[in-house]
Write a structure and sequence with these properties.
CATH architecture of the largest domain: Alpha-Beta Barrel
Radius of gyration: 20 Å
Number of strands: 9
Enzyme class: oxidoreductase
Number of helices: 14
Cofactor: FMN
Helix content: 40-55%
Bound molecules: flavin mononucleotide
CATH topology of the largest domain: TIM Barrel
CATH class of the largest domain: Alpha Beta
Number of domains: 2
Keywords: Flavoprotein, FMN, Nucleotide-binding, Oxidoreductase, tRNA processing
InterPro entries: Aldolase_TIM, DUS-like_FMN-bd, DUS_fam
Family: Belongs to the dus family.
Distance between the termini: 25 Å
């Protein structure tokens, strides 16, 4: 069973992934948050950082991109293969109206003929292609025609987050519908969505015994040892976990301060990090509240000290 870390824009950037790999481990494959091509025809520096410095340090990184045209698709395949990547991931899941309105992300799912055209004329096969997608934009049956198209291409892997775009993150991942589409498809599909505990994983695995890839996002951010639990690896004691969390935290903080400047920039990165990191501690709400309301680095450091005075959850 492959366990991968889902891409979460603003949370699973290279700083996080590198620290996680160094301090925790247990994730088999990492995905970058989506890269986009700007109107100027260039990629933002912050997006380049996701793929360019990481190359020698992690060969299990799969860069992800958004593309709604043949030209954009070709751009990313060339860019990523020139960097030496062996895999790339096309995002057909992003639900945000700014993206779907441009017929990108899950906004492409109602247009299987457009997906076919992009694959036919855009994908040259230089690197393996995987696709991460939702069930549809407006309706879950949209995926049926999309999978029909995909059957005819050499796609390395398909990962489905079984929600529709307009649902955003409401409701829950539709495992029954996932099972239905899996039964009608000729390849094993990776599963993503709402796996937050070992129990969640075990229930899923009981329902889908052929599963060979589970992608987890928020569940890993809230419990760094979830992949190890799934793999049956022994979990360190609470005391040791706290030390590891401290190491992870220090690693992240020092990496950000090495290239960002000023309280505002640093806090803009650290506050979202604590949104999930605080889940590891008792009194997590109080912990997060302290971090969230800290106005400058001095107050922020006090809130961090408070956090590490708490016990780590069992
Ligand atoms: C804040 C946030 C940012 C996300 N950014 C991306 C992204 O860049 N690319 C992508 O494919 N999915 C993105 N997702 C979706 C996640 O990868 C994943 O599909 C979703 O969170 C469900 O999985 P989970 O329940 O394990 O978190 C994002 C989700 C959240 C909450």
């Amino acid at each position: 069973m492959k366990i991968s870390l889902a891409p979460l824009q603003g949370y699973t950037d290279w700083v996080f992934r590198q620290a996680y790999e160094k301090c925790i481990g247990g994730v088999d494959e990492f995905y970058t948050p989506f890269l986009v091509l700007q109107n100027s025809g260039e990629i933002r520096t912050s997006h380049k950082r996701e793929v360019e410095p990481f190359l020698e340090r992690n060969n299990r990184l799969v860069p992800q991109f958004l593309s709604g045209s043949v030209e954009e698709f070709q751009f990313f395949e060339t860019y990523l293969s020139d960097l030496g990547y062996e895999k790339m991931n096309w995002n057909l899941g992003c639900p945000f109206p700014m993206v779907t309105g441009k017929k990108k992300g899950s906004g492409l799912l109602p247009y299987p003929e457009k997906i076919k055209d992009i694959l036919e004329r855009g994908y040259s096969g230089k690197i393996d292609l995987s696709i991460k997608m939702r069930l549809g934009l407006e309706d879950k049956s949209e995926i049926l025609s999309v999978l029909d198209v995909m059957k005819n291409f050499n796609i390395d892997e398909i990962i489905v987050h079984p929600r529709i775009g307009k649902q955003m993150y409401k409701g829950s991942a539709d495992r029954d519908y996932f099972q239905q589409i899996q039964e009608g498809f000729n390849k094993v599909i990776g599963f993503n969505g709402d796996i937050e505990t070992l129990d969640d994983f075990e229930n899923l695995n009981a329902q889908l015994p052929n599963l060979n890839h589970v992608m987890i996002g928020r569940g890993v951010l809230k419990d760094y040892w979830l992949p190890a639990k799934i793999k049956g690896i022994e979990i360190p004691s609470a005391d040791i976990r706290k030390k590891v969390l401290r190491k992870m935290y220090d690693e992240i903080f020092s990496t950000y301060t090495s290239f960002l400047s000023g309280d505002t920039q640093i806090l803009q990165k650290m506050k979202p990090f604590w949104e999930y990191f605080s889940s590891h501690f008792e009194n997590e709400r109080k912990v997060y509240k302290g971090i969230k309301k800290s106005g400058g680095l001095k107050k922020y450091h006090e809130a961090v000290s408070f956090a590490f005075q708490q016990n780590v959850k069992e």
